[in-house]
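Bench log, entry 3. Co-assembly request; chain sequences pasted below exactly as received.
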Amino acid sequence: MNRRFFLKNSGIALASISAATMSPSFLTRTLAQSNSNGSNGQSGRRKILIAIFQRGAMDGLSAVIPYGEQEYYNLRSSIAVPRPGGGIQNGQPNQAPAIDLDGFFALHPTLAPFKPIYDSGQLAIIHAAGSPDNTRSHFDAQDYMESGTPGVKSTTDGWLNRYLQANSDAKASPFRAVAMGANMPRTMQGKASAIAMTNINDFAIRAGGGEMGQAVQGGFEAMYEQTVNDALRGTGKETFEAVKLLKRVNPTQYQPTAGVVYPRGQFGDRLKQIAQLIKSDIGLEVAFTDIGGWDTHANQGSSQGQLANRLTELSQGIAALYADLKDRADDVVILTMTEFGRTARENGNRGTDHGHASVMFALGGLIKGGKIYGKWPGLKSNQLYEGRDLALTTDFRDVFAELAKHHLGATNLNTIFPGYQVNPANFKGLVRA
Amino acid sequence: MLNISKTTVRFASALLALLLALGSPVSLAQEARNQKRKARGAQPTQTNPAKSLTEEQRVIHLLDRSTFGPRPGDVERAMKMGWEKYLDEQLHPERLSDLAIEQKLKDIQSIHLSAPEMAKYYPQPQVIQQILKSRGIEPPGLAGQNQNPNDPKNTANEDIKRREAYKALSEMGYKPPQVAAQELQQAKILRAVYSERQLQEVMSDFWFNHFNVFIQKGADRILTTSYERDAIRPHVLGKFEDLLKATAEHPAMLFYLDNWMSASPNAKMPNRDELRRMRREQQLGRLGNPGQRPNAQMPRDDEQQMLNQPGQPGQPGQPGRIPRRARGLNENYAREIMELHTLGVDGGYTQKDVQEVARCFTGWTLRNPRAGAEFFFSPFMHDDGEKTVLGKKISSGGGIKDGYTVIHMLATHPSTAKFISTKLARKFVSDNPPKSLVDRMAKTFQKTEGDIREVLRTMFTSPEFFAAENYRAKIKTPFEMTVSAVRAIGADTNAGPQFHRWIAQMGEGLFLCQPPTGYADTAEHWVNTGALLERMNFALALSSNRVPGTLVNLQNLAPGLNASQSSQVVDHYVKLLLRGQVSPQTRATIDKSLGEQQLAMAGGRVDVARVVGLILGSPEFQRQ
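Structure output for the full assembly:
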């Protein structure tokens, strides 16, 4: 098969052969929630990974500030975030100080919602993490991180899809892998089934409501069931099974847990829907969404400003999602990633340019949180990557692989990360045994 | 937008081509035998001579494949003319008058602008920031960034700022960058819907896809307009080598596949004068105004790496710049020109060839990236040594000619003839094109030195093209489905973002294909759960006038029709929209749906919009 066969922008049809095995009884099996991925959550429920891609290159140095290192303040005269307990004002009034974590690192003040989760040992931070490839092209770097093969452009599928392929489940729900967004992200492209949707409510025939709409849907369903075209028939049946399953479990009936408020806007909305799908036990195992706006070349701001606004939305959204899934915290891991970090020194526009290593956050009931992982390389000029960026000490694949293995229960890590010798000795120890 | 990607079984997809023939009396056993023969490359035999296409079917088939779908009356006109004459007409679009579409495109400003003009009116985001600051206006957050959504005052402030900024910018004559893409998409859809030169439009789409660039990659935001108009469209039915050359030289491609950054590891350093010239051009490029002082800041991102030469005398107060990775060969274009544009991945090149080709193209770069970007050959970046490409030695000292030598070698290579012929046959004939046809097309390609028109003629006049098993055997792409629906019901559209949105939701956003492979052209790619739902929803929205900017008047299609007689209504639209090619089951389904109370409007009149919506969303209408 030509290696370009599976192209990047769309899903692939279900052949009639597997469609024929779909019967209403699969609905019952799914709802009975057999845990088939080998993990041994005490609840017996399946483990879930929620991947959140911050597109645009988040400045890790101001998200988790190495305030213990004076260089940080030397390099960023106008955009450094003040040390815990106040200090530098940057000539701007009322710049809130960073939130101390361990005496050396501190959280950006707008990441305050993360602090209690960190303190309760369920949020881990991996600093100086990212991709070893030295591209500073958003386009290429995102491609490398999503395909899980830095430096290789010919990989046709995403790392999460390879996880699904390597740990296949013939009884899987069509909603085993869901991307909340308009397009199937690179991360989930490939042979294994995945669904991309922007809105649970739109995943239907939109023919107007009531009996009229039902009749039209029924008409289409009957047509596709009867067509002689195998691809159209197989996929048609899949479509209506998924639509009906979704309708039957009705995920939107699950309102957020009392007290949980998602931030307004697309990001919060998508996280809320991921939570709804999870709570409806529809069979979700891996979820993906993304959030943009991190490319702060100019006027990045320090405690306030552009970056602060993004971090606010990020932390409020993730904290809400985590609280919403409180009852299943042990089954869930939320992982953030970004294609690269930003320059250590600020530029002439009070911003930062494309850099190298950044920060990843991992949250979950069984995450060994309350700690900052990764070797800190330092910010002195001879410690910077190419003299300008935070150097890398943790390859993102080690984090992905550790969670795939110890949280999701994957066994064949080398097929998930081709060309990389996954070495468990490099794992950070993020997951409680 | 919804998508499901599923496990595919290769056998099923191959079988697809055969099982699609509607009402075919050919037995499954015969089909399996035909399939085996097909797999060995032989012509499938027809057990029943009556299984060859009727004259009307030939015309429908030709129109289905070589246009964006017939309009009411098109099939009749082509039948009267005879399909050979129709084909010949389409192969010579210059002989066809096309006033209607020219009129519609007149007022779309950006598609008529040169690249420097584009840069002037559509400045890059960072340049917008500087323009605003130089006017004393505080720039809002970069377009598209949500500010803290939980602070309504913050949002309101940002909205006000953004409106003020856009007002100031448009008063100065500037446009937001996304308008360039929107107008390009709009023009492409309008041409597909309204142009009489349908084959030309189909081929423009094919070649753009073949030589794909991604309009959202940096400078390509404004370079793609000229790329489509100046590098692709003039050559779509001409000589392949001309097309290859035009795309190789065009800034959009040089930028998209990074060749503009590719430099010899032994590149000579530019001297002081050259540096001064380059810096001056950078100033001009950035602000479009020679008088203004550029920001003394070093280049910020990849787009400006071009001017980042090591050993550059440091500007006062600036530390010496550490050389970046780009100081060296960039193999991206070299690989893709062979793998995707000419020879094909199995076309017989090696990794060594990739490097040697990359060496040939060093120095093929850009200047003025932010002021319209021109193709520019930089001797400093060029590797002037001797090279060996595909076994042929290229002497040293060739300079810019090295690149043209490679282009000529690739354009005339037998693997290219085969690769291009295969792609064309896959698009127009079958997802699994018969070897006999591909071979014949490749022979024409080589004999005519890559004359695309002649290769197409060989293809469209071949018995394989008109083979019964290929009739209505391909699945329309989203672009083809939406446009063919509009054409089929004679709708009028402004082809604005509200229309394009549907195409994007089905997975084929125009000019939005990120990887250089372009969009695929096989059923598996387009037939997935989410996309099917969107096709059905589009059909319903279109037929009931719920696509803003698109107007449908179904009454015009059925003058004098008795709308209370549901079977007559269905007959009429099935004949009009599907040429009567509907399976008994589909027909029964539509009748049943109409029979139910729900679809009859008050007064016993049939809801025509529903009928049309069901037909346009039916499995039959997805085929061509």
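Chain B touches chain A through 91 residues (CB under 8 Å). The two ends of chain B are 24 Å apart (CA to CA).
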